[in-house]
Amino acid sequence: MTVRDVERALRTALSRGGDFAELFWERHETLQLVLDDQRIEDAITGVDQGAGVRVVHGERTVYANGNVTDVDDVMAIAGRAARSVADESGLHEAARLTPDELPLPHSVAIDPRSVPVERKVALLRLANDAARAHGRVSQATVSYAESVQEILVANSDGIHRTDTRVRVNFAVQVVAKDGAVLESGFEAVRGTRGFEMLTEDAVREAAETAARRAVLNVGAQPAPAGTYTVVLSSEAGGTLIHESVGHGLEADLNLKGLSVYSGRIGEKVASELITVIDDGRDPGQRGTAAMDDEATPTQRTVLIEKGILKTYLSDRKHAEKLGIKRSGNARRESFRHLPICRMTNTMIASGESDPEEIVRSVKDGIFVKKMGGGQVDVVSGNFAFEVTECYRIRDGKIAEPLRGATLVGQGPKLMSEIDMVGWDLGYSTGTCGKDGQGAPVADAQPTLRIPSVVIGGKVS
Amino acid sequence: MTTSLSNDEVVDRALEALRAGRVGTAEVFVRDALSGSVETKDGELEVVTARGERGLGVRVLDGQRIGFAHTSDLAHSGIEACVDQARRMATITEPDDDIRIAGTSIDLVDLDIFQPGLEERPLADRGAIALAVERAARSVDPRITHFRKTSYSDAEVTTVIATTLGVRASYRESFCGAMTSAVATQNGERQIGYHGEGARRIAELDPDSVGARAAQRAIEKLGAKPFPTQKIPVVLDPWMAMSLLGAISPLFSADNVLKGRSLFAGKVSERVANERVTIVDDARRKGGLRSAPFDGEGVTTTTRILVERGVLRGYLVNLKTARKTNGPPTGNARRGSYASPSRIGPSNFYIEAGRDDPEALVRGLDRSLAVTSLLNLHTIDPVSGEFSLGATGTYLERGAPIYPVQGITIAGNLTHLLSSISGVGTDLTFGASGIGSPTLVIAELSVGGT
């Protein structure tokens, strides 16, 4: 689409009234290869292309969208959005557009589309062989996905901004078997990076980690249910911060007064050992981009500083209503959706304790080495997350492995109880789900000690 | 505006491109959908969305290698490019002698899944349904003070499939759904309750019941306390039971069975559940939310008993796994979108109604825990069958609520859960995902707490 076409679409969108109009255009090219049960089973490619036009008038937002490829069809979508608006208060003009593009916080060295498919297939085989080299491994699924998303965001304030997000995702899922017991292990290498991220070493390590985890769990005892002292390793990743705090700091929930953090800016909401940051510019991380999906530049936002709540994660609408600065956290899964406030790369900043000393300090507890997925009820603050690798701590030493554990708690309560924060930092990656939309994210944390928290497992 | 091809013309053009490229066997799939939704806030419409989507997916089988490509560019050049890409993908995969493209004509029946004109209804009609949901929730109890989100949405969808082996068929379907998350407030405490329902026709959707149930779900959690760690009988109402049943369905996938990823492998004719339990997958249920005359591979769908009074009778099968297991395909290749190939999955998947009055079942238990919400369902590992979930609940004595609890976990194994079902209610209910269940009593589960 030419700049003139975009201006015409915005004018059409505002032709029946409205205060603000925006066009989101997207072309998303993907390739997915799956090796399962020793065979390359799937090779899937396609282009998902479309546009969405938003018109805001007063308190109402109209959004029309479709998977169209043709400029005329984009105009039709703009017309469709306009038809749902009937504003007698007069028409707003769309400002002239000035095209620009923001710099990425990192460079993409190798466009995955330029890499021969044989190379990708070879990596799948390498991972498959590495996983199957472990005894008791009975099955492995290895997948490679590349994704190049080009977007254009233009609005009636005169913004016309483009961005390209190149992502790779290499995932390994392994099944280990012992008698009638089956367990699975998972590990992935993924980020907003080019093919350079997928070195043979990185891929082999992911496969070995997934296999080791499956084999470990198949021989592990069921985790006990009850209340325990827990050490979360930095290697465990950041599901805890994502679920227990992150979602509660999204501005949409706070505007409605629904979050446990609503109206608490400036107040103490966590232990003074806790600083929480969302950084959409963390180089190469899975949640990184040059701008958000409303064309606001991404940034590093300190959300909680030494226990004090500083601000929320905002989009355009909620920043304005709450009177806070836009933080570049408006994200959408595709042109099919309106942007919503959500996290990018979220972390608890490193502290001052020696991680080994944290483990040594616990007489009887649980050491969580890897977390899986999680969920939070933001209204009550109750959260749960899956533990995919954990061990008993006995007399300050890591002891036998345990399986099938989950960890539950209430966000603000847990954050005020954390009493040791390590000097290390470890990342994990995932896909966050909110309001039916998925978004690639990363989370990070140092080693943490929680004096008392409920572990879900088996009652003996 | 450029004149666009009709759905049938898109299919014809794709078949021509396949013939011109001398592709032996292939499948062409078109989906065309119009949808709309509204969200409300404080008695007003806040967001109005309209969507049009149409796309093509092509699956090429060349030398027993399968390749898949999709596009939304339905001009001649876009269709040809998609066919070329699918052929290219088929050079990457490895041959499997059991892969088949459908060649048997489809038995088309009217499953009562389409209400015409859903997308032509005025915006105000859609808004009225969402607003009625909010009103119903507020009228339950003055402690319902906020809503996280209330929405109504609907869609009209056309699906067309054709194969080079002569299969060609299409069907139309409609959906409408309403949901809300109501928030109850009392003495500074806030609790949320979610409920959503779906239907094929507007008249079958009851906004009052959606609002009222969400409100009750929020109110019943107010005053929630911690709960001691223990083993205790657990009551799952139909909505809670459905969410766990959804996690059980991958165990029935023939693909998982053949690849050693299902605890049901090798268990046909063996007992896998309590004798009170019969599980059915019925793609031909009239008006069912996952009913369809044919599946994502163009195979006629079926009605099947998967577990009969506790005994495993069979798996969910597509064309490839039917060959591998020497059985007939069951029409369980589910297709989420034109842009993804089909995967084995259930249709309308449910536990049959039992003989017990649900209230009498619960009254018969001295102490029990009725689960009122579950967190982290998406993390259940169908391979190990293990689950360990965050939960809220109500502690009951002889069926009478004593106090609500929160900050607990329930844990176990899905296979153990099925064999521990000690009560099945008469109240079979279907949810918005097409899964159905009556009230279930689990004889004993591990509950983690203080």
SSE ordering of chain B: HEEEHHEEEHEHHEEEHEEEHEEEHEEEE
Radius of gyration of chain B: 24 Å
Annotation field: number of helices of chain A: 9
Number of domains of chain B: 2
The proportion of residues in beta strands of chain A is 35-45%
Calculate the terminal CA-CA distance of chain A, rounded to whole Å.
65 Å
Compute the CA-based radius of gyration of chain A.
Answer: 24 Å
> In total, how many domains does the architecture of chain A comprise?
2
> What best-fitting shape of chain B do the alpha-carbon axes yield?
globular
Number of continuous helical runs of chain B = 9
What is the terminal separation of chain B in angstroms?
66 Å
Low-confidence sequence ranges of chain B: none
Write the layout of secondary structure elements.
The complex is a heterodimer of chains A (460) and B (450).
Chain A: H1 3-13, E1 20-36, E2 39-57, E3 60-66, H2 71-83, E4 98-101, H3 117-132, E5 137-155, E6 159-178, E7 181-191, H4 200-218, E8 221-222, E9 226-232, H5 239-244, H6 251-255, E10 276-279, E11 300-305, E12 308-309, H7 316-322, E13 330-331, E14 340-341, E15 345-348, H8 355-360, E16 364-376, E17 382-394, E18 397-403, E19 405-410, H9 411-417, E20 420-421, E21 426-434, E22 437-445, E23 448-456
Chain B: H1 7-20, E1 25-41, E2 44-62, E3 65-71, H2 76-89, H3 123-140, E4 144-163, E5 168-186, E6 189-199, H4 207-219, E7 230-236, H5 238-248, H6 254-258, E8 279-282, E9 303-308, E10 311-312, H7 319-325, E11 333-334, E12 343-344, E13 349-351, H8 358-363, E14 367-375, E15 386-397, E16 400-413, H9 414-419, E17 421-424, E18 429-430, E19 435-437, E20 440-448
Parallel strand pairs in B: 7-14, 13-19
Antiparallel strand pairs in B: 1-2, 1-4, 2-3, 4-5, 5-6, 7-20, 8-9, 8-13, 9-10, 11-12, 14-15, 15-16, 16-20, 17-20, 18-19
Helix pairs in contact in B: 1-2, 3-4
